[in-house]
Amino acid sequence: MIFDMDIETLPREDLEALQLKRLKTLCERVYANVAFYRRAFDEAGVKPADIKSLADVRYLPFTEKQDLRNHYPFGLFAVPKDNVVRIHASSGTTGKATVSGYTQRDVNNWATMMARSLTAAGAGRRDIIHVAYGYGLFTGGLGAHYGAERLGATTIPVSGGGTRRQAMLLRDFGATVLCCTPSYSLVLYETALEAGIDFKDLPLRIGVFGAEPWSDEMRRDIEAKMGIKAIDIYGLSEIMGPGVGIECVEAQHGAHLQEDHFLFEVIDPETKEPVGPGEVGELVITTLTKEAQPLIRYRTRDVTRLEYTPCKCGRTFARMVRVQGRSDDMLIIRGVNVFPSQIESILLETEGLTPHYQLVVEREGNLDTLTVQVEVDEKLFSDEIRKLQRLEGKIQKNIKEFLGVTALVKLVEPRAIQRSEGKAKRIVDLRHV
Ligand code: DLL
């Protein structure tokens, strides 16, 4: 099923014409209403009227997270404050929160995009949607909530936490769709099992999982354990929240990006030039319809690539392959670049390991060292030490062979790694403390 048939299947030519029209209006609007952009356009020597084709976007200035911080909290608004009906913020790990504002139309568009997303995931108005993303300043909870209501589904606003109770509500209310981070879905699953509730016996059939990087191996593990389809959803608060892109259940191959509302580019983070078609780089997003806080060429730091080949679901929106990770999360271990999700893929191909892991980075002299801590399952845990040691050696060898990184592997007992109710903490960086 497709929620907005006319828009989501627009021939690319028409879609690009729509994008160009919106891009031109956007440039006029930010130039007239946001001092920061007027200055940035002037410094780059570009005027709104210079934008004549979509490719001309490359002459426009970038926006970085730091720009949002510098104008904290409302300095990048393009409308009078009275027109702003909602504020969200992402805390991040360092520095000030980044704030985003929404007009009523922004909230409506977001709800529509989330309804499209849930439809792409295979949900419909008859579904019971359990929203376990956090409600509050984080965009996950309210984003999924408004979309589920727009869809006409029954929405259960559980938010994060109280995991044991959640498991019972999931069973008692007969939820068919679960929205949360992939890592939290596992926590919920395990807690439910302990309480004698097996997801496989429930009507649950779809997971809408995102807000953190996860691998295809993790998806397979989740799908097999829970007996559901696990769908990857992408988004970020600066741009909107969840629903910037989502996989379709038909292909489960890359997240369709909402191209009528956003313009996507992939750049080389060093040269800041566009990469070649289909090449990997940093995703850059321009909001085409946002009223309250439109952003021009926002540098997401998310590393991915785009595919424009037709999809069997019929949508014409481009697809973004799984985000490997954020460039800020990329580890450089003795000169080799590695994303946590690449290590995750290797771990999950090994029998007896669980999807609970952490990467500890330390510095010895001038060299960074990496220790991979991963929980084993109960069965393996009861095995003799020698067998476990052999396994550690084997994983170490695989990591070296496939990723070129030397890592120390430590198997730890079940539940040794801290659980999170939202985004999992995969990297423990002890270098700067
Ligand atoms: O995480 C919005 C969201 C909520 C998305 C619920 C999906 C579901 P932020 O807290 O601002 O917003 O974090 C955004 O999370 O730049 C990516 O690095 C990462 N991220 C989000 N979705 C995915 C995904 C929300 N599916 C940052 N795969 C983004 C990989 C993701 N990374």
Short key terms for the protein model shown above:
433 residues; alpha/beta; Rossmann fold; nine-stranded mixed beta sheet; 21 strands; globular; binds 5'-O-[hydroxy(phenylacetyl)phosphoryl]adenosine; PA_CoA_ligase; ligase; nucleotide-binding
Give an overview of the whole structure:
The protein contains twelve helices and 21 strands. Strand 16 and strand 17 (336-338) form a beta hairpin. The strands form five sheets. Strands 4-3-5-6-7-8-9-14-13 form a nine-stranded mixed sheet. Strands 10-11-12-15 form a four-stranded antiparallel sheet. Strands 20-19-18-21 form a four-stranded mixed sheet. By secondary structure, the protein is an alpha/beta fold. The chain has helices at residues 5-8, 12-33, 35-44, 65-70, 104-120, 139-151, 163-172, 182-194, 216-226, 340-348, 378-381, 385-403; strands at residues 86-90, 98-102, 128-131, 154-157, 177-180, 206-210, 229-236, 241-247, 255-257, 262-267, 281-287, 298-304, 306-307, 319-320, 325-326, 331-333, 336-338, 353-364, 367-376, 407-412, 427-429. The chain folds into two domains: 102-326, 3-Layer(aba) Sandwich (Rossmann fold); 331-429, GMP Synthetase, Chain A, domain 3. Helix content is 32%, strand content 25%. 5'-O-[hydroxy(phenylacetyl)phosphoryl]adenosine binds at residues 90, 133, 139-140, 210-213, 232-237, 241-242, 300, 302, 323, 326.
